[in-house]
């Protein structure tokens, strides 16, 4: 995963058979993607009120938005074209891929990972069908906590997207704060694909195993954060200039009105 080398290259380097390398890789991959391991390292405790307050406070130190509890985005991870798949895995960039969706916090920790969807699936559909989306939609708290995503997603009461055509000073300010807050998820995708080059090359397994490779990389990423390695950004003070927006069917408008 750290070199994207062919197994034959590893065999030559360590003097073992290709079958031994393949068996060992499968054992390690199984260990990192065991449900108990995944649940330990990748967790989205959105129902915890103290966690929501702490996460939103940390996000406010990035750019000023006080109600963000996660930044969401999808990325195309190149894979070999699965047999008999037609164009199911061909993404809009015209190569076979899996559409991996991450939700991250302000420190770059992966809170949710869905690496299983084919590349032809739109980012918005991946998120709408996810358990994370259902859980945040089910929140009954009076505060307008929300995810933050790009224009590929649907703006509503629990997800804020940028304005397509900002006109007022408040709208332009919102778009600027939105971009500075959401960029953390793009940084995570950029750094994780450099740390695990197998994700930037064409993964040479079947689609289910490719998804497990991506999930294992996410687990290792969070393990690295626990050990002090990973995305770090400069942080300002907590923003108390406007109140926490209340829950609304369009929380973006509430935030803009308060700027």
Question: Which spans of ≥5 residues are poorly predicted at pLDDT below 50?
Answer: none
Shape: elongated
Q: Mean pLDDT score, rounded?
A: 89
- What is the H/E order? HHHHEEEHHEEHHH
How would a crystallographer describe the biggest sheet?
5 strands, mixed
Number of domains: 2
Q: For the terminal residues, how far apart are their CA atoms?
A: 45 Å
Number of helices: 9
Structural class per helix/strand content? alpha/beta
Q: What is the helical fraction, as a range of percent?
A: 40-55%
Question: What is the topological layout?
Answer:
Elements (H helix, E strand, L loop, with lengths): L6 H8 L3 H15 L2 H7 L7 H12 L7 E11 L18 E8 L5 E9 L4 H6 L2 H7 L8 E3 L10 E2 L8 H27 L11 H20 L24 H8 L1
Parallel strand pairs: 1-4, 4-5
Antiparallel strand pairs: 1-2, 2-3
Helix pairs in contact: 7-9
Keywords: Hydrolase, Metal-binding, Nuclease, Nucleus
Cofactor: a divalent metal cation
Family: Belongs to the HARBI1 family.
Structure write-up:
The chain has 9 helices and 5 strands. It has a 5-stranded mixed beta sheet with strand order 3-2-1-4-5. The protein is 42% helix and 13% strand. It has helices at 7-14, 18-32, 35-41, 49-60, 123-128, 131-137, 169-195, 207-226, 251-258; strands spanning 68-78, 97-104, 110-118, 146-148, 159-160. The protein has 259 residues and is of the alpha/beta class. The mean pLDDT is 89. Keywords: Hydrolase, Metal-binding, Nuclease, Nucleus. It comes from Pristionchus pacificus.
């Amino acid at each position: 995963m750290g070199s994207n080398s062919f197994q034959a290259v590893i065999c030559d380097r360590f003097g073992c058979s290709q079958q031994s390398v393949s068996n060992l890789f499968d054992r390690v991959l199984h260990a990192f993607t065991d449900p108990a391991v995944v649940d330990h390292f990748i967790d989205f405790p959105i129902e915890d009120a103290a966690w929501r307050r702490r996460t939103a406070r940390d996000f406010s130190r990035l750019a000023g938005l006080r109600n963000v509890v996660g930044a969401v985005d999808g990325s195309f991870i190149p894979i070999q074209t699965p047999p008999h798949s037609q164009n199911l895995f061909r993404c809009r960039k015209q190569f076979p891929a899996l559409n991996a969706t991450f939700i991250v916090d302000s420190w770059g920790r992966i809170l949710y990972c869905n690496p299983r969807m084919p590349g032809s699936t739109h980012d918005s559909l991946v998120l709408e069908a996810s358990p994370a989306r259902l859980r945040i939609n089910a929140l009954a708290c009076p505060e307008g906590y929300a995810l933050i995503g790009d224009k590929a997603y649907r703006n509503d009461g629990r997800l804020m997207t940028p304005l397509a055509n900002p006109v007022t000073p408040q709208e332009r300010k919102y778009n600027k704060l939105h971009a500075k807050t959401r960029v953390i998820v793009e940084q995570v995708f950029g750094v994780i694909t450099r740390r695990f080059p197998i994700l930037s090359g064409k993964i040479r397994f079947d689609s289910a195993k490719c998804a497990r490779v991506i999930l294992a990389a996410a687990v290792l990423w969070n393990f690295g954060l626990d050990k002090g390695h990973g995305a770090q950004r400069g942080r300002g003070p907590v923003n108390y200039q406007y109140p926490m927006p209340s829950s609304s069917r369009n929380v973006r408008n509430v935030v803009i009105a308060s700027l």
